Amino acid sequence: MKAVRLFQFREELKESEIDTPKPRGKQVLLRVRGAGVCHTDLSIREGRFALKHMMKLPVTLGHEIAGVVDEVGEEVYEISRGENVVVYPWIGVDEACVYCRMGEEQHCDKPGWLGFISDGGYAEYVLVPHYRYVYRTRLDPAIASTLSCSGITAFRAFKEANLRPHETLLVVGAGGGLGTLAVGIAKARGCPKVIAVDIGEEKLKLAEEAGADHVLSGDRDTVSEEILELTEGKRGVEAVLDFVGSKSTFRVYSRILAKMGRYVKVGTMGETPDFQYPLLTQRAVRIIGTLVGNREDMLQVLKMVEAGLVKPRITKIKLEEVNEALNRLERGNISGRQVVTLA
């Protein structure tokens, strides 16, 4: 089968012909129909991924995966060949660990993540180690694939913000793949005021289409004051979801948090922020980190998208275009989510 694989960090992925896996036991073999292109894949390619010491090269990247069940192992009875499914890739190998027992296996100390530790979705086929990680769906595979990471990451970030019914949410990086989903999820969950910040007309337009009540350009010197003007008594926003994670985004947007506000830093990308401890104590602000959601989050997001409450914004590409897709991510000139589609 054809696969696009990483052979060496800081080098482009290479197209290869490898053997098609044979499922055994509780395994499921999928014919890939959609594979989202995540910023984490860029981090891995460039050798900036924190867990790269656990990876064995070569490996097929791509952890946002949807497709059709092609074959199942002899112990699989719950799912059948020909069914359309989406994959939860954040697999914990040590089921006895405290995080797996908590239902948070994405934090397992022995991860078996697809597209990282084992081969992922930038290929014609992918082997899923257990049928419990595949979910039936009627969605277009290109749409469904984005839920495996960007969807559940955005959903978990919104949960961590713990918004009350009257509170205002600020989404930083609102025109990207995660940001647009976060805006849509927030509105679907009843958030009364979502302020979206990004740079570039196309990204701001996507954030507005996703449901943002106000869209502001982050490259204006007056953006902080503009945000404060949109809040009651200019007291600031109650929560920030930061999908950029740069020193400048933290410096600017942590200062417009209301007292007792929550600043949620999302995902694997970002820089070490500079902050003053009085921000935490005198204003009772909380800084929260979140990586990705669990399997229950996956079910919740899947239901929301299938019900039409949230609409991922995607651009379809070919398998051989993965490197250029990653390069576009590095340049920052992509809106929404790029998705590899295979016939």
Automatic annotation (TrEMBL):
InterPro entries: ADH-like_C, ADH-like_N, ADH_Zn_CS, ER, GroES-like_sf, NAD(P)-bd_dom_sf. It comes from the Archaea. Pfam families: ADH_N, ADH_zinc_N. Its cofactor is Zn(2+). GO terms for molecular function: oxidoreductase activity; zinc ion binding. Residues 2-340 form the Enoyl reductase (ER) domain. Keywords: Metal-binding, Oxidoreductase, Zinc. PANTHER family: ALCOHOL DEHYDROGENASE 1-RELATED, VACUOLAR PROTEIN SORTING-ASSOCIATED PROTEIN 11. Belongs to the zinc-containing alcohol dehydrogenase family. This is Zn-dependent alcohol dehydrogenase. It comes from Metallosphaera yellowstonensis MK1.
